[in-house]
Write a structure and sequence with these properties.
seven-stranded mixed β-sheet; alpha/beta; 17% strand; binds flavin-adenine dinucleotide; 22 helices
Length: 693
């Protein structure tokens, strides 16, 4: 029977509660003088060892059942009184029985309450428990830093069966029990033999010190053994690393691995350079640039191609082969944790990096499949400028392409379901984007839900719903830009049972390791960011962790992730904006480019810099910039955030005049003014008055 269905009868619950309270009182009375308890136990042990063992056992059970802190001391005491073997036996069983009592108390008294309060949370936890509960509990038990009583109580709130809880607790706690009991036994010998630092005591203390470091590793090794159990492990490996995907993440992974002289194979199924070079950042920025400078569509296409061709050698097979990377063009399939096949050829490897990227998400809109729609992947093959272009999606890609095509001469309609563009940004940023696009001739339709694509006598049209009304938008080409989904199927993740997150990225820990620690994931396939710079950043860590783990591993820090939308004006952000900072105490400092000399000189004063600081401090929580070269300007703030430099430090930097980067000094100056001490200023004023005589 599922514990979710266990509804304790009120009478039973009350009886358990009353018994628990009684025991608390009894135990408190008992524990008021632990020294006394210990002395009595020692005396008793000398005269009646069996009775002493039984009393200590009972006391241990009661104290742990009531979650009274101090189990560690009791464990050391058991070692001191009864020695290693008997002490470990006593503690192992007493702690597990006490834990079971605490577990049952939590289940009967608190589970229904917890379920009612946090139904979604507990449903999720219960799903996890059903899948992996006992194993997870063993791994928690192995880490002494996780309080023993907290594990008992929390486990009681889940559906974990009592039997599994008992076994997992007994197994998981045993290593720590042994070490603590041994330490207690060693301490008891102090002074008995003259020398204080006996080898046994030193070993005991060393084990105690090493336990917090060793336990998580032991847990990882335990967990790894379990996941690898069904896969035959080769005795030798042909490669140190195989990288799947030749986009930003894959290329950097292979580069870093090769730089440290590892033997690495990179497998790419389509074009080297991945999305960024071929269908993403590079062509989109080249198109925006061409459109901004008045090129026509044919010229713009040529400029895009020339740009891609100019950058392609950086990512080419020839370059990577020259670096010593074994590059294979073909589809990679993960056959086992140590084997990848490419078009039928199997290669064994110590580690694998999944850098398979993402692809456009196509919504299930009726009629869409029958119309000539494009995505960011196929857009670059369009040979003639669409007279009427309808764009689905008001995110960064949608806004960039809407502006580019409008400037190239298309009649662009941008359809967004939400009530504003760039939904992740603050309202004023969305408004700035909407007015910039409108100025370029884009028809911005926010709050419009694309419902159906129609094909009539006069061509294609999109039916959108807006405020309960139907709106029909005729188009020659539809561009779908409503997001990109990670590539996670068809290359072995399913066979290996590598789990995905709720957002369908590959699940990876803070070191980018998947369920199998020698298989790592980075870039768009791992998320949560979908940028070339985050893909490259993660890739460096993934490569080193793949090659050096379990001896060494490094955790990437995502303290200040920059993101830029390359429209005119540009939108740039790092860290929190106001929308995201709802539960944080923050202050806003706002500076307009209409105040900046360089912007005035160039008659380009649109936009602002907005800095969020921790309330009462100059610590930068986030920066949003709207305006020309916002992305370049952002880097000054990103460096400050990454290295914990506050606005006061930024104020102390010399900025060349007149540049847009002076906005950094200006916004820091505004913050300083706001935080000037009125008392200090009044004192200064008096001081200067005194000096004037
Ligand atoms: C229009 C557009 C504009 C963008 N603009 C920007 C921008 O300005 N700035 C920015 O930072 N980001 C931008 N991005 C996002 C950026 O392109 C991605 O974040 C980046 O390319 C992710 O790199 P990646 O290596 O994770 O994935 P990808 O570049 O997608 O590379 C993954 C590669 O893996 C290969 N692959 C997949 N499965 C297999 C397999 N089984 N075997 C072999 N090979 C496989 C794929 O063919 C692909 O080449 C833009 C994206 C788009 C679509």
């Amino acid at each position: 029977m599922s514990a979710a269905l266990v509804k304790p009868r009120p009478a039973v619950a009350r009886a358990v509660l009353a018994a628990a309270l009684l025991l608390i009182v009894a135990a408190l009375a008992f524990t008021l003088n632990p020294g006394e308890v210990q002395r009595s136990a020692t005396t008793l042990n000398a005269q009646h060892p069996f009775a002493a063992f039984a009393v200590y056992f009972a006391f241990y059970v009661v104290a742990t059942a009531l979650s009274i802190p101090g189990a560690t001391l009791l464990t050391l005491g058991a070692g001191a009184l009864f020695g290693v073997a008997e002490g470990a036996l006593l503690v192992s069983f007493a702690a597990t029985i006490g834990a079971c009592a605490a577990f049952l108390t939590a289940r009967f008294l608190l589970r229904n309450f917890a379920l009612e309060r946090f139904p979604a949370l507990f449903t999720r936890i219960d799903e996890g428990v059903a899948r992996d509960g006992a194993f997870y509990l063993v791994s928690l038990r192995l880490v002494p830093a996780i309080p023993y009583f907290a594990v008992n109580l929390l486990a009681g709130l889940t559906t974990l069966p009592l039997r599994s809880f008992y076994l997992a607790s007994q197994i998981g706690m045993f290593p720590a029990t042994l070490i603590y009991v041994n330490a207690g036994a060693s301490l008891a010998t102090l002074g008995h033999h003259g020398a204080i630092l006996t080898p046994r005591l030193i070993t005991g203390l060393l084990l105690l010190a090493v336990l917090p470091i060793a336990a998580p590793r032991l847990r990882d090794a335990f967990s790894a053994r379990r996941v690898y159990a069904k896969w035959p492990r080769p005795r030798k490996f042909e490669r140190n690393l195989i990288v799947i995907g030749g986009g930003a993440a894959g290329l950097v992974s292979a580069y870093v691995a090769r730089a440290v002289r590892a033997k690495v194979t990179l497998i790419e199924q389509a074009r080297m350079g991945g999305d960024c070079l071929n269908t993403g950042c590079v062509p989109s920025k080249a198109l925006l640039h061409a459109a901004k400078h008045g090129l026509n569509f044919t010229e713009a296409r040529a400029a895009v191609k020339a740009t891609v061709d100019a950058i392609a050698p950086h990512d080419s097979v020839a370059r990577y082969a020259g670096l010593g990377v074994d590059v294979r063009l073909g589809r990679a399939i993960i056959e086992s944790p140590w084997c990848v096949s490419v078009d039928g050829t199997k290669i064994t490897t110590r580690a694998i990096i999944i850098a398979a990227g993402a692809e456009p998400f196509i919504p299930p809109i009726p009629g869409l499949a029958e119309c000539p729609y494009a995505t960011s992947e196929t857009l670059w093959d369009i040979e003639a400028l669409p007279a009427r272009l309808t764009l689905l999606g008001g995110g960064p890609i949608g806004c960039e392409m809407a502006q580019a095509f409008a400037r190239l001469g298309s009649a662009v309609t941008l359809v967004e379901m939400a009530d504003r563009l760039l939904l992740r940004e603050d309202d004023e940023v969305s408004a700035a984007m909407a007015s910039a696009l409108t100025r370029d001739g884009v028809t911005v339709l926010t709050g419009h839900r694309a419902a159906e694509v129609l094909h009539g006598a006069i061509g294609f049209s999109l039916r959108a719903e807006h405020g309960g009304q139907d709106v029909t938008i005729a188009f020659d080409r539809l561009l779908v830009a409503i997001g990109r989904k990670p590539r996670v199927t068809g290359y072995g993740l399913e066979t290996l049972g590598i789990p995905l997150t709720k957002t369908k990225t590959v699940e990876a820990n803070a070191w980018l390791q998947t369920l199998y620690p020698n298989i790592l994931a980075c870039g768009d396939v791992a998320g949560p960011y979908q940028f070339t710079h985050t893909a490259g950043f993660q890739a460096g860590y993934a490569a080193l962790n793949a090659l050096l783990s379990p001896f060494w591993r490094f955790k990437p820090s995502y303290r200040a992730i920059p993101a830029v939308t390359y429209t005119s004006p540009e939108i740039a952000r790092a860290g929190l904006n106001e929308r995201e900072a709802q539960n944080v105490a923050y202050e806003v400092t706002h500076y307009s480019f209409s105040e900046l000399d360089r912007a005035i000189a160039e008659a380009d004063t649109e936009g602002f810099v907005k800095v969020l600081t921790k309330k009462g401090s100059d610590k930068i929580l986030g920066v949003t910039i709207v305006g020309t070269q916002a992305g370049e300007l952002l880097t000054g703030f990103t460096i400050a955030m990454q290295h914990n430099l506050g606005l006061k430090k930024l104020l102390g930097v010399i900025y060349p005049y007149p540049t847009r980067s002076e906005a950094i000094r200006a916004v820091a100056g505004l913050w300083r003014q706001k935080h000037a001490s009125a008392r200090g200023l009044a004192l200064l004023s008096r001081f200067f008055a005194w000096r004037r005589g």
